[in-house]
Amino acid sequence: MATPSKSALERINDFLDRYVLPWPVRFLTFRFVILFTIALLIPLIAFANNTVLVLGLNSYLNTMSVAVSSIVLLYATIAEARQKQIADLQEMRAQEDHIHVTEMHTLIMQTLQNQNDQMAELQQVLATLTGKEVVVVEQAELPDLRSLHPRGYERFSETDLSQRWQAGVHHNALLATIREGLSAPADEE
After folding, report:
1. How does DSSP assign 20-76, residue by residue?
2. What does the angle CA 53 – CA 30 – CA 34 come to, to the nearest 5 degrees?
3. Tens digit of pLDDT for each residue in 15-63?
4. What is the pTM (predicted TM-score) of this model?
5. Rounded Cα distance, 145 and 17, in Å
6. DSSP structure class, residue 19
7. What are the DSSP calls for 94-130, one per residue?
8. CA distance 40 to 68
9. How far is CA 138 from CA 118, 121, 141, in A?
């Protein structure tokens, strides 16, 4: 079902993608159509003197060539945009996992610190009970996990992903335009 926020062109493209374009793709990828089209090269060569036949067959072959090329280009472009979308989702998941692992590490470090504090208190109690002097061991300060990352604090920036995409991915205006409206159809969500 079309949402009111979609433009007329987006609704037309959705309609074409869903109901019209699959038919030429099915026709052009049907094995007998492919074999028939290839077989037309034989009468094209055999009846080279018959101008009307040659022009007719040549027109058919040119039309098929343009149609196939256009469909291949369309589907390759859509596939590339979808691959970018998948990569974005994978990077988002990796970032979520990274945040989760970072938080787990922080909890473990806090637990260790609590255990160290409790051990120091127990040593103090034991020293008091036995009348011995407590040897205070200087505890190392917990390292800052974000500073341990090879890229440092930059890795934890909110804009890190978009900056890395901008710097590392080849940009294409057509793909960017296609990606703007690329979303899962309502029946796939």
Report:
1. ITHHHHHHHT-HHHHHHHHHTHHHHHHTTT-HHHHHHHHHHHHHHHHHHHHHHHHHH
2. 40
3. 888 888 888 888 888 889 889 989 999 998 999 999 999 999 999 999 9
4. 0.53
5. 48
6. I
7. HHHHHHHHHHHHHHHHHHHHHHHHHHHHHHHHHHHHH
8. 16
9. 15, 14, 9
